[in-house]
Amino acid sequence: MIRPEGRPVLTAAQMRAAEEATGESVSALMERAGTAIAVAVRRLASSSEILIVCGPGNNGGDGYVAARVLAERGAKVRVAALGDPKTDAAKAARAGWSGPVEAFADAAPAPILVDALFGTGLTRPLDEPATKTTNTTPAKAGAQLGSAIDSPPASPIWAPAFAGVGTVADGRPPLNRSPAEAGAQLKPSSNSARHPGTPASARERPIVEQLHHLATAAHLTIAIDLPSGLATDTGAALSPPPIFDVTLALGAAKPSHLLQPAARYCGEVRILDIAIPVTSDTHVLDRPDLPTPGPDAHKYTRGMVAIIAGAMPGASDLAALAAMHAGAGYVTLLGDTSGPPHALVRAPFSDHALANDRIGALVVGPGLGRSDEARSLLQSALATNHPLVLDGDALRLLTPDRIAASNRPAILTPHAGEFDALFGKSDADKITRTRAAAKAANAIVVFKGADTVIAAPDGRVRIAPHASDWLSTAGTGDVLAGAIGAMLAARLAPFDAAAAGVWLHADAARRLGPAFIADELALALRKARASL
Ligand SMILES: NC(=O)C1=CN([C@@H]2O[C@H](COP(=O)(O)OP(=O)(O)OC[C@H]3O[C@@H](n4cnc5c(N)ncnc54)[C@H](OP(=O)(O)O)[C@@H]3O)[C@@H](O)[C@H]2O)[C@@H](O)CC1
Ligand SMILES: [K+]
User: Fold this and answer.
1) Which of 36, 42, 160, 308 is the most exposed place for a label (fewest CB within 10 A)?
2) In sequence order, what DSSP letters do the residues of 481-506 get, joined into one string?
3) Distance between CA atoms of 132 and 366, rounded to whole angstroms?
4) What is the pLDDT of residues 29-44, one digit of tens each?
């Protein structure tokens, strides 16, 4: 199980192309996928009974292989099918499973639920009845295959699998607990609260409701490739599935493991390496590799950031504080401001002050306002050659053409409203939109949100994993602009500077837990930086 950070992200079509490029049969790939799933599930499930629900496509095929391998290795495993397999590989996988097959609609819950209903082939909502015809063999009482598991006790297996990756800060519980504990604590807050009611007849339930029913009763829920109900490429939840504890992505991460709202249903995402070479111009954001100051460092080698203050000086103060704690050597705030910290060089705004050729990054927009004076300040900023970080009001006063014409490195940090205003509304997915925006403005675009997407004009994209939901508070955007300014002033390539700033910002937020304020976030950048 591989953490997704830094890994390529592939669409469904790209993944299919990568599979085909191996020249191997689907059955051979399915055998590898199913075996890797079995190993991972057994590690997570310990000796608890496992129910694998299998759909009609190759996702279901993976489930049948995993069931066979788990049973061969002594796990207690049951299989429930939604219809008969449709693909040759899935038919062969089902034929390899010698145990009973229950009907999905009638399946009773088990402590461990493995969802192999649908993966990258899902094209429409799961609102058909769960009874879709299936030729099942009756389940024997208990349907227990194989002997007792000869594995070590639960917690030593369980804990290392996800130790340290719990997302405490964003409100989701950590997974380093036993299945029993997980069952006691996870389910009431995640699934059952969202789907309290079920129809009288289980056979009439839509597929997705039966999935919710099984998940609610399980101690641990594991999705194969994707939770069933999610579109693969767009981040859309076609039918909102249960919130899974773990998603095992086959071969590579897919956009919906990262894009909202889909990502929230995936829980902890881990990639299973099934030896399919994958490349992509889209990657999951990774920890940055930042230089630490050497013995010959001085304030200018660490980078000088200038920030233009405007109508609301608190915002530019936050950006300045962030730039300092992200590691800039010299930060100057140009405008009519006052107060601590003493290390911040406050100076009146003038074109002369702006002309300092030691400025490595100029941050414009936090608290700028939209008055004529704001426009004039922005005009002065564009008249320099300094690399730019454009945020907040600057994004409301500019057009993509004008940014492109400014002809120097620029990083734009719009939230959704600013993005729509600058680049127009669209139904396209966030990756596509951000990539197109970067090209239009010939700039790095950081499209902020719980799923921040960073794109370069050449098409490269990095997607940040789910950031703390507590970032939804005033001033955190100003902090991000300052952090990115510090990275740009340190002479990182603009795409890397944007990525490093986003990473530091998210890491600082994670460290703070709930209900922090933007001032604390700026200070916490120091700890994020120290962790590298
Ligand atoms: N990545 C890798 O390297 C490897 C990937 N592999 C695995 O293959 C998976 C992709 O398999 P897949 O293409 O067969 O698609 P999958 O998700 O099983 O579903 C397709 C079926 O669902 C049906 N269907 C769709 N929507 C529906 C609905 N709402 N309600 C009801 N039915 C619906 C659809 O029917 P149709 O639309 O044709 O009527 C079709 O029958 C991938 O996620 C991974 O697990 C491994 O096996 C090998 C290595
Ligand atoms: K699935």
Assistant:
1) 160
2) HHHHHHHHHTT--HHHHHHHHHHHHH
3) 55
4) 999 999 999 999 999 9
Residues within 6 Å of ligand 1 by CB: 15, 19, 26, 29-30, 33, 55-62, 86-87, 118-126, 128, 224-225, 250-251, 274, 276
pLDDT single digits (tens) 102-134: 999 999 999 999 999 999 999 888 888 887 545
Closest CA to 362 of 396, 411, 302, 413: 411
| 222: its two tokens | 């594991």
Residue 529 structure tokens: 């930086």
**CATH node for 299-530:** 3.40.1190.20
Q: Where are the domains of the chain?
A: 12-122+163-284, 299-530
CATH class of 12-122+163-284: alpha beta
The label of the residue with tokens 């769960």 reads: 130
- Indicate the SS3 state at residue 250: strand
pTM for this predicted structure: 0.88
Which residue is closest in CA terms to ligand 1's atom 33?
122
Q: Which of 76, 93, 105, 112 is nearest to 35 (CA)?
A: 93
More confident residue, 187 or 517: 517
